[in-house]
Write a structure and sequence with these properties.
Mean pLDDT: 75
Low-confidence stretches: 1-9, 16-55, 226-242
CATH superfamily of the largest domain: Collagenase (Catalytic Domain)
Number of domains: 2
Radius of gyration: 18 Å
CATH architecture of the largest domain: 3-Layer(aba) Sandwich
Largest sheet: 5 strands, mixed
Bound molecules: zinc ion
Order of helices and strands: EEHHEHEEHEEEEEHH
Distance between the termini: 43 Å
CATH topology of the largest domain: Collagenase (Catalytic Domain)
Helix content: 10-25%
Structural class: alpha/beta
Strand order of the largest sheet: 4-3-6-10-9
Length: 242
């Protein structure tokens, strides 16, 4: 299959938009929609075996349930505070669960000179068929010779995150890619390529329409424009990260 590199962009995250065929077993989009169907008691997908309530969960169901939980690992040199931050951000913005899995061995093939990480090698080496994983590190992550703060693949199930001042925003951005979103031209949108000075943690209305139903904890609070959002006193002011 011919691979066409459409864009290499995003100084923000280094996400590579590539017109590649995704061959991973489960995409997040599929799994999320199944979970939502079960939750609201609506149409089930597949054979409806769960609705009978008589059978124990099948291996397939167990695997799908696992896909709504993100495993969080540290890797190489790391800051433990980022683990808490990742959990908080996911629980605050998304409906997914998290599971802290501890420290992961850094595959030697992923390490470049000066202890930097080859992000693309990491994504390949760290990928697990039955687990969605976030790997957090303090070490520099490179892709295509670009230093990046986060890296994942469209509809992927591995996210690399480097400790950085906008850790939460990068995580939401990478989650957007995992959920099937590409970069956005709206500079205020969390999916913007250069979402730094201008950007928020929120998805623009165009992007949010592409987020799978049920993935966001509060769709309204996650959507631009910010003027429509009622920020509670306990919330971080999302528009004031700079
Ligand atoms: Zn990106
Ligand atoms: Zn957008």
């Amino acid at each position: 299959m011919k691979t066409i590199l459409v864009l290499i962009a995003c100084a923000f995250c280094g996400f590579v938009i590539a017109n590649r065929r995704i061959d991973w077993s489960y995409t997040f989009q599929q799994v999320t929609s199944i979970a939502v169907s079960d939750e609201i008691g609506g149409e089930t997908q597949g054979k409806g075996e769960k609705r009978s309530g008589r059978k124990s969960r099948s291996h397939t169901e167990d695997a799908k349930a696992e896909q709504n939980v993100w495993s969080i690992y540290t890797m190489g040199e790391y800051d433990a505070a980022n683990v808490d931050a990742a959990q908080r951000t996911i629980h605050r913005v998304f409906t997914f669960g998290t599971r802290v899995k501890g420290h992961h061995r850094l595959p030697p093939v992923c390490v470049r000179a000066s202890n930097d990480l080859d992000g693309d090698q990491c994504l390949n080496e760290l990928r697990k068929d039955d687990e969605q994983c976030i790997f957090i590190t303090n070490q520099m992550i490179y892709t295509e010779e670009l230093s990046v703060r986060g890296l994942t693949k469209l509809n992927g199930n591995v996210i690399l995150l480097k400790n950085n001042p906008r850790f939460d925003k990068v995580l939401i951005h990478e989650m957007g890619h995992v959920l099937g979103l590409r970069h956005c031209e709206n500079l205020a949108c969390v999916m913007a390529i250069h979402n730094d000075a201008e950007g928020t943690e929120k998805f623009c209305e165009q992007c949010i329409r592409m987020v799978p139903e049920g993935a966001l904890r509060n769709r309204t609070a996650s959507t631009l424009p910010a003027s429509e959002v009622q920020a509670s006193s306990n919330d971080v002011e999302l528009d004031d990260l700079n």
